[in-house]
Design goal:
The protein has about 260 residues and is an alpha/beta fold. It has 10 helices and 8 strands. Strands 1, 2, 3, 4, 5, 6, 7 and 8 form an 8-stranded mixed β-sheet that branches. Strand 6, helix 4 and strand 7 form a beta-alpha-beta unit. Helix 4 packs across helix 6. The two termini are about 15 Å apart.
């Protein structure tokens, strides 16, 4: 199993991360990634960049050395109504949104509260990916969340750092999420959640657990640039058209069939 797109990483704009956009382009090329995404934290996180950061990402080239970069955000779930801290003025500049719980923004509560908030953020239609839903500090009704995600064409993230150095105790939840995704046919994304460029494209735990439960590769939305851009096109995202010619040039390199 090969995954050629990373959907989740942080730059020095999120001040507990340590790499620049240039660093990520360099490491992505070395690791033979074809596309990665910068997803710095939404403004309610204590170390988040100013909202202008997201609007000005338009100055970053779409493609450097034949590696493409997507301009995105890891938004914070604010309440049980499913609101995010992604301001309306930021939306036109973003290729996609990851929606996540973070302790400084949404205090951990109970299964019913977490599930209500996550299901409602899915139903609101702003986000395309639910970030690290296996976090043991935010237990959820996995079936309810994945059922809502499937109904609204939202991918649930399996976050590699949840197995290695973040959100300790996530593994059993992540495996349960993968098992439910197999049963329901819910789409999944793999993200490194890199906070330093050396971790970009690290999906080794995600891939191992996906193989363990028999997840079909076709359910992984970011297995290739073609598959991820097709997924974003289903959400009406213009980046799919912006990168269409570049993506067409990769067709001879990728052998994973799209859904």
């Amino acid at each position: 199993m090969k995954v050629l797109v990373d959907t989740h990483s942080h730059t020095v704009a999120s001040t507990h991360a340590y790499s620049t956009v240039h660093d990520y382009f360099t490491q992505a090329k070395l690791k033979q990634l074809q596309m990665f995404s910068i997803t710095d934290h939404g403004p309610e996180m204590p170390d988040a960049p100013h909202p202008w950061h997201f609007g000005n990402m338009k100055v970053i080239p779409r493609v450097v050395d034949n590696v493409a970069m997507l301009r995105a955000i890891e938004g914070n779930i604010l309440n049980t109504q499913g609101d995010l801290d992604v301001l309306p003025g930021m939306m036109p500049y973003l290729d996609f949104i990851i929606a996540s719980f973070h302790e400084p923004v949404f205090a951990p509560s109970d299964v019913a509260t977490h599930t209500q908030a996550m299901v409602n953020v899915i139903k609101q239609g702003q986000c395309q990916i639910i970030g690290h839903p296996g976090n043991p500090n935010y237990p959820i009704d996995i079936e309810a969340v994945l059922t809502a995600a499937k109904a609204n064409n939202v991918a649930v993230e399996i976050n590699n750092s949840s197995f290695t150095h973040s959100r300790q105790g996530s593994e059993a939840n992540c495996v349960a999420i993968l098992e439910m995704a197999v049963r329901l046919g819910t789409k999944v994304s793999f993200g490194s959640d890199a906070h330093i460029a050396y971790h970009i494209g690290d999906f080794h735990q995600c891939i191992a657990k996906a193989k363990q439960v028999g997840l079909p590769e076709t359910q992984i939305v970011n297995r290739t640039p073609e598959s991820f851009l097709a997924f974003l096109h289903e959400h009406g995202k213009s980046v799919a058209l912006e990168l269409a010619d570049w993506c067409q040039g990769l067709s001879g390199e990728n052998h994973v069939e799209e859904t």
